[in-house]
């Protein structure tokens, strides 16, 4: 007789393998060469040419190019960790840089399911963790992030790891290993993308409300790790950029140019509920079910309040960035959203009494099938690449022509 | 709060809602396609009198058989008839008369919604729900235009209320009149009555599990007799069963090939939810969140949610036939659900500040809804709230 714990571990392994298979076999109707991916590739090629020590030259070249008012806005070389991982993969496996970056995105999209599953297991227990993994395995957003050389799935992995490690540190204070892991992960998140600011702000918000929410214990060591990690990341970025002044200028140029970028103005604008609308468009079932637990689940377990707090804090900042809203950035909310939906489905299945497991499996398989169907409609039957509302609404036949 | 205070506040809220629904001067500058068709029907009635109804049908059938495009059928007799009545009494243009009908039905729906909410959930809840109803953007918009959907929503609400009262107090036969009137009026108003009717019948069929109240034989008789009466009125207006059936057949047949319907009425099952989030984000999100709450113990929630869910399920299956205007009949269920959540959340506040906290939350939601109304229907000047039109003033689409 297999123990329930072992059975759950077996189920988690099966779901993880399924998630990998889904991502490895997921097709995409989009066959273009988008600018973002090309730029990441160029940075990886430049890194190969200059080596780590010469990376400041890449930053200088970027600044020189961006100072020209006629040049288009480009992604900054400060998204170093993604570029570095792509370069390393290319070297180790002898791949073309773009193919290597695609493999990195794919692998981290798969790993994301694993890390989110472990986090959910630790925070919410095996049944909800299995459900969360199942919903994540079929999440169109996560699959899409793994299908292209986009940074957001990679970033979501590190952001989710930060979120989980903060929880672990709050629950197990003064654990050196956990503190080091949190600090290191925060540093890598900062090295990955400037959106790390939203993540750090949200994590800071969670630490601030801890005395009322009682997630765990905030120690001075945690505060130090929480500040030292991002600081180390920022210092590493400054070194890679050739100095603090250069780093600041890169970000300043990026923000200034992004506000005048036609594409960002056209696709990144909208009201405060833009992310909710986009999420509901792409993943209707999971978001609907997750929303039903918004006010009840946080009363049941502090972990739900923790996850909700992360979404609320980061959402509040992210929806206020002018011309800077994009559903890709919402990949960092997939763990909280899927965990909420999974908890609701588990609660529903538990009403079936002795047949709860069968009911649960049926519910999650159905929800997963709905999610995969959404992926097929949007990304296989239609060449959706950029997750702007218009392209998604067109793929769903809601928008056909200007009325 | 005393009943007297609540009544005064209710009157203030209804007065505000009514003021919001009064015709706007800027709407007079432009007449929408559907408004124009309804106006033409009223014009034809003004020339031929009520005896001219059958001619509307023969003209419609002839035009549909020859023309490639389709237009709204003359089977929507109650709306056109009311427009004719107002024009006869007040004079003026037909479209203006129809807009008066829309405005009056919008205000009537607000008042009936307030009474229904009071009867279901008590005076305090009625206050909050009426505030949300008063600020509901879609309801305000439909009151300004000579569009049938606000008028239809009124009769669907009457029928829904009538069913509730009959299930809860089956011994009081007077409620059967209200219920029957709502059902008959629905049928005479618009073919969408089929969706509302299916939902109402399903509630009766599922009452054993929903446990809303008691189903009686008179209730069942009225459930089928009243729509039959409405259908009989349609037959008389059409001048026989054959022209009525032919008019419906042509309407259905041509609707699926209508370019505008194909362009704007398509989409997945969650299309209505997306549209409602664009127009009423706060109320819709709260209503969805309320489904995970504890209000299921309340039969009112089961009654309203069943109506919403069943009619939604049917309406989301109609190919090229999805438009959030048809969802106007869900206004009360959505507002009730949203308020139930706010009310439940306010329970966490200490008793001393509970009422203030709840009132503040309702005010914030109302402000968000009014802001949405202003963005979409005042600044955006939207006529038909389809996704493409809604996305532009919200800056989510910049063609």
Provide the fold topology:
The complex is a heterodimer of chains A (403) and B (399).
Chain A lengths: L3 H22 L9 H16 L4 H13 L12 H14 L3 H28 L1 H12 L2 H8 L3 H21 L4 H17 L3 H18 L6 H22 L2 H17 L1 H6 L6 H9 L1 H9 L4 H4 L1 H17 L15 H17 L5 H25 L8 H7 L8
Chain B lengths: L2 H19 L11 H16 L4 H14 L10 H14 L3 H28 L1 H12 L2 H8 L4 H20 L5 H16 L3 H18 L6 H22 L2 H15 L3 H6 L6 H9 L1 H10 L8 H17 L15 H16 L4 H29 L7 H5 L8
Describe the protein's architecture and organization:
- The complex is a heterodimer of chains A (403) and B (399).
- With 403 residues, chain A is mainly alpha-helical.
- Chain A is built from 20 helices and no strands.
- Chain A has helices spanning 4-25, 35-50, 55-67, 80-93, 97-124, 126-137, 140-147, 151-171, 176-192, 196-213, 220-241, 244-260, 262-267, 274-282, 284-292, 297-300, 302-318, 334-350, 356-380, 389-395.
- With 399 residues, chain B is mainly alpha-helical.
- In chain B, helix 10 (193-210) packs across helix 16 (299-315) and helix 11 packs across helix 12 (241-255).
- The longest helix of chain B has 29 residues, at 351-379.
- Chain B is globular, with a radius of gyration of 21 Å.
- Classes of the chains: A mainly alpha (403), B mainly alpha (399).
- Chain A binds chain B through residues 265-266, 269-274, 276-277, 280-281, 284, 288, 291-297, 344, 377, 389-390, 393, 396-403, and chain B through 260, 262-264, 266-271, 273-274, 277-278, 281, 285, 288-289, 291-294, 341, 344-345, 375, 384, 386-389, 391, 394-399.
Instruction: Report how far the terminal alpha carbons of chain A are from each other.
Output: 63 Å
Helix-strand category of chain B: mainly alpha
Which consecutive residue ranges of chain B, at least 5 long each, have pLDDT under 50?
none
Q: What is the string of helix and strand elements of chain B?
A: HHHHHHHHHHHHHHHHHHH
Strand content bin of chain B: under 5%
Overall body shape of chain B? globular
Helical run tally of chain B: 19
**Main pleated sheet of chain A:** none
Q: Catalogue the unreliable spans of chain A.
A: none
Oligomer: heterodimer
Largest interface: A-B, 34 and 38 residues
Compute the gyration radius of chain A: what is it? 21 Å
Tell me the overall shape of chain A: globular
The SS-based structural class of chain A is mainly alpha
In percent, how helical is the residue content of chain A? Answer: over 70%
What's the β-strand tally of chain A? Answer: 0
- Total DSSP helices of chain A: 20
Strand content of chain A: under 5%
**Strand tally of chain B, please?**
0
Mean pLDDT of chain B: 95
